[in-house]
Write the structure tokens for this entry.
Amino acid sequence: MTEMRRVTAIRNGTVVDHIPAGRALQVIQMLRIDMTRATPVSLVMNVPSDKLGRKDVLKVEDRELNQEQLDRLALIAPAASIAIIRNHTVAEKLRVELADDLVNVSSCSFSNCITKNAREPLPQRLRVISQDPLEVRCYYCGRGQDLEELVENII
Amino acid sequence: MGDVVTMDDLTNDEIISILDAAERLLPVAKGEIYLPLLEGKVLANMFFENSTRTRMSFESAMKRLGGSVLNFSSAGSSVAKGETLYDTMQMVSGYADVVAIRHPRQGAAQYSADSIELPVLNAGDGAGNHPTQTLLDLFTIREAHRTLKGLNVVLVGDLRYGRTAHSLSHALVRFGASLTLVSPSTLRMPDEIVSDLRAHGAEIKETGSLSDQIADADVIYMTRIQKERFPDEDEYAKVAGIYKLSASDLAGAKEGMAVMHPLPRVDEIDPSVDSMDHARYFQQAFNGVPTRMALLCRSLGVDVPKKVK
């Protein structure tokens, strides 16, 4: 538990543990955490982990993330474990789940996909063909998607 | 309902049933019998990209069955004014009973199918899929070999951008064909397709040389290098004219081997091949009519009679 104490325990909020090392900043982006708000966000990056070797941990104070927000993480942090903290104790434990159909999570990276016209009104849709190894394709054009590009194209 | 965007929208049994219906419709396709199965029905031919054979054979198929056709081309339409595909499709759904769409952007057919209730038939989406071409290709292969099973099919040319090769290869492996993919390294079949084909347990060989493959082939399927999809002219120049088939190249070919091409050809097949028994490409172009007839009937829920008289 020493690595968990690198940042003070929080009173209320959400802890996202077991993020692959180096991905915590992308997790913040994916969770659409509003950095203009006054609530503190703490990051621990690249600490030793039995499960992952190295991992990142993210703590968001005074905000409880819901399952839908968390499932967005499944693309880049499929092994993430989440604790909702209330009054210094773990009130709920959650896991992320990668859906087969990702609607408006990230946009297709292929330049000639029909969805590249931003005025087209139907949602962005990606299909998860396989979880391990991760293989994701655009539902419309069928192109295989590169994980780094998906992260860049987070909606 | 009734959408055909990729070959995955049809089971093997459905494919066979479409090919069988197309075979029964041959005298109608040739104009020998008039059979107004689709009287009162309207096809919207939505061509956002040029087409000769696909558009005309859809139109011929619909008209030979007594239906009518609305022809659309994007030049000069509200698309040129910036209308979204979604809006264009909403409009069309008020005017027609079935839609055939060709579009330069990949995914446009699926997008259209999701935008409206009418059945949508993909007539080519960018470098994506072209399933109605595949149906006529399968029909032509079956005509030549009386079967689809266990054939050695050699696909040649632009396998990266050539959508006909993408759809056809998916269908062929489902019928147990072995595929030989012949292309320059820059125009290889996309990885996701090769991985799908292998997942079907198909034997896939990839090579850059055509001449070694001719003797064992049951079908040689030539494709044009898709100039319009190249990012720049120099890249095109490096591979233009790379595969050419002439009568003398076919000296060692099996009897009954079929040379096919979705057309238009540039210089992939020399005219010296045209008079050989191997040449099937003009028959193939005609086969677009009966197969699209059978497909239109299926999409509109009209049964093709067991005996066509």
